[in-house]
Amino acid sequence: MGPQLHPSHLHWRKASPSSASGSNCVEVADMRGLIAIRDSKDPDGPHLVLTQSALQGLIRQARSGELDL
Q: How far apart are the two ends of the chain, measured CA to CA in Å?
C-alpha cells in the first residue's frame, strides 16, 4: 500500500447504518476501487479492505443471519 493509500490519508466517513448514539460507529473510505472499513472508536486500530462485491456479500450475509455475529 503506497503512502497515498495509507489509512491516515483516506477520507473516512461514517457509514449510514451506524447508530446515532455513537456506540456502533463504522467508518468507510474509498481506496481506488476498494472499500476500507474501520471502527470509528479506534481510528488507529486495524481496518478491513474489501472489494465492493465482497462488501455487498458480507452485508447480505450479516442481514440474512448467515454469520455468527
A: 29
pTM of the model: 0.71
Would strands 13-14 and 26-30 be described as parallel, antiparallel, or unpaired? antiparallel
Q: Where residue 17 falls among pLDDT bands split at 50, 70, 90?
A: low
pLDDT for residue 1: 45
Q: Are 39 and 22 in contact (CB under 8 A)?
A: no
User: Strand order of the sheet with strand 34-39?
Assistant: 13-14, 26-30, 34-39, 47-51
3-state secondary structure of 19: coil
* Cell 472499500, located at residue: 35
* Angle at CA of residue 53, ends 20 and 58, nearest 5°: 50
Which of the two residues, 33 and 4, has the higher pLDDT score?
33
